[in-house]
Amino acid sequence: MTAEQHISEFQELARLALPKMYYDFYTGGAEDQHTFEENVKAFRNIIIRPRILMDIRRIDMSTTIMGYSTSSPIMVAPTAMHKLAHREGEIATARASATSNVIMVLSFNSTCTVEEVASSCNAVRFFQIYVYKKRDISALMVQRAERNGYKAIILTVDTPRLGRREADIKNKMISPQLKNFEGLISTEVVSDKGSNIEALAYKILDDSLCWKDIGWLKSITNLPILVKGILTQEDALRALEVGVSGIIVSNHGARQLDYTPATITVLEEVVVAVQGKIPVLFDGGVRRGSDIFKALALGAQAVMIGRPVIYGLAAEGENGVRQVIDTLKDELEQTMALSGCCTVKDISRSHVRTEQDRLHCRL
Ligand SMILES: Cc1cc2nc3c(=O)[nH]c(=O)nc-3n(C[C@H](O)[C@H](O)[C@H](O)COP(=O)(O)O)c2cc1C
């Protein structure tokens, strides 16, 4: 494959490479998949306002995220169970992230351990966590991440229980034993009602988690804590109040509550509420470099990529992940050049027009 390939072509390669059960698991959203479709479609309603005659000979996409320099405002989102996509699993993803100099967020539900990923390459890594009913297991994982050089903890807050993913239920999707928890907790659950992932989540996720628990998390780690899964200004303000170090606007790739808004349509609401006090990151539906440009124009410091990374991994392992990241970088570079933005700092609110802008104009 060459870097000119579009993300949808990697998706097709993944579809050909994977058993249907796994492809459906990686691709799908919740229930009617309304939000799933909207996440991608909503980008199309945002128009770019290019500036001309800007001397674009040198385009610099590099940026700093949570104090770490990276090649571009692109991060690898935490996604579960990479070994179902490729035998090298998260190690391949981490190595590609290192080569591309982008930050990788390792999922709590990985199929390689925190330690294996840490020792595989020198990528800057953050660690995503869920809080289990057995809190000492989550606490232990945070400590293992800290000991192994992960630079931030990303607490996913939109998953007190698992969203209803109907394809997984129909396919009777089975989770493998999750590597990080070997010897600690069995992640093999027998369920006669469809997806055993749903049954597993029900058994182990702490659905009593609430805002005061951020205090608990802070008390067990020195790493910065970001919350992933904020969709409203109200929750953004609460996150500021409890003192998190960053917010990720995300609807979990539309895999949790269906009929939540497409993330790109609520990014600005959160950015305005936060007033630049902490970084706002973004994910959901990014499939083009121009999507990244739009998210930055609306105030995101960086975007995270979920499914496209898995498509690259399934298609060609480490090489495929690198190509997916390169494709998005190439497209972002092109969008910046043709919009007259030489650095990511040059990308401003005035470079896009949203649907809301158009509605306001008509009033
Ligand atoms: C197959 C799959 C597994 C995921 N696993 C996790 C996870 O373990 N933890 C988490 O916080 N988010 C998880 N997510 C959500 C992603 O981090 C991210 O929010 C989402 O994929 C972004 O949307 P996109 O796939 O359209 O890029 C997962 C998403 C997918 C598609």
TrEMBL record:
Q: Does the keyword Nucleus apply?
A: no
Q: Matching InterPro entries, A to Z?
A: Aldolase_TIM (IPR013785), Alpha-hydoxy_acid_DH_FMN (IPR012133), FMN-dep_DH (IPR000262), FMN_HAD (IPR037396), FMN_hydac_DH_AS (IPR008259)
Q: Which residues form the FMN hydroxy acid dehydrogenase domain?
A: 1-357
The record ties this protein, via PROSITE patterns, to:
FMN_HYDROXY_ACID_DH_1 (PS00557), FMN_HYDROXY_ACID_DH_2 (PS51349)
Q: Which leading EC class covers this enzyme?
A: oxidoreductase
Keyword Oxidoreductase found: yes
Q: Where in the cell is it found?
A: Peroxisome
**UniProt keywords, alphabetically:** Oxidoreductase, Peroxisome
Q: Which Pfam families does the record associate with it?
A: FMN_dh
Q: Which cofactor does it need?
A: FMN
User: Which family is this protein grouped under?
Assistant: Belongs to the FMN-dependent alpha-hydroxy acid dehydrogenase family.
Q: What is this protein called?
A: (S)-2-hydroxy-acid oxidase
Q: Which organism is it from?
A: Rehmannia glutinosa
